[in-house]
Amino acid sequence: MPNTSPVASPGAPFLQTTPSGTTLSDATPATSPPAGRITPATMSACVRRIEPVADGVISIALEPADADVIFPPFTAGAHIDLHLPNGITRSYSLHNAQSDTGCYKVGVLRDRASRGGSSWLHSHLQVGDVLPISRPRNNFALVERAARSVFVSGGIGITPLLSMIHRLRQLGGEAHLLYCARSRKEAPFLQDLTAMTGDGLTMQCHFSAETGAVANMADFLSRYTPDDHFYCCGPSSMLDGFEVACDALGFPNVHVERFKAATHSTAEPEPSGQCVVELAQSGRTVTVPKDRPLLRCLIEAEVEVEYSCEEGVCGACETRILSGEADHRDSVLSKSQKASHSAMMPCVSRCKSDRLVLDL
Which residues contact 67 (CB under 8 A, 6 or more apart)? Predict the structure, then answer.
């Protein structure tokens, strides 16, 4: 399976997913939705429980606010958007088991650089509050057929991986976890995971405050084989080291989820010229410059497009390409998906060919 790199903020919001997630990032400023924006269909969710699960981390349990509404099912690794009263939307990974029908649980880290997302949730959210939420999306799906799954987590990055571990335990699968955090007090769900070990799950913990160093990623990963599937969620430095180690070991089945979008290479000059974008559903055409993200151009042309994070990490704006090629700059699509030019994330990606036909 190809390398995949979404970004959902797990419990640090996606750069915003978010995202995950998680994510979806609190670094995204709060702004009013511009004209032309389509907000994904939302459901009303009631906050049933808020509990601390580590220093600076809370778990929020959500249930349908209306008795006649049923939350749609989700799969391990999925995330949802929370639409907050202050006008901010943030994405967070679901950490509960996908068999928990009727309930979504997200973990939220209070971001020191918060601009209104996690800080609002930690300071103002109360049990009984009702929030609009999106349907679950999954850019970081578990490959259930894998004989063995290997997980590497950094702090709040455990949230989507915890859901995957729950799923593998239900399936009788084998899971191995390297759990990294600054300290035991800052490791969400550590007690829960410790209680689960020994039943198809092994866990190795690394706390930098105790060791004075980062975990030896290559040493941990070298115990496994190219047939295994590898998953990582955590800070960018960890993800970069994880991908380098997996590449050096020749592991093809690598999956990552980023809190923030990966930095786009500036080695190549910015594209020049224009592209004629054809919208197959409406029959419209829009001429756009190749050096600008497509979403901005579509909005200015009053084309309705669903989107959320505007950072290429949450997957909300994924649009099918019917013809032509895109200059992909997202952190959601895999390398093979980008090479196929079958879809794009217009919030950050641009036009590469002179003509692009989209399923809009």
Answer: none
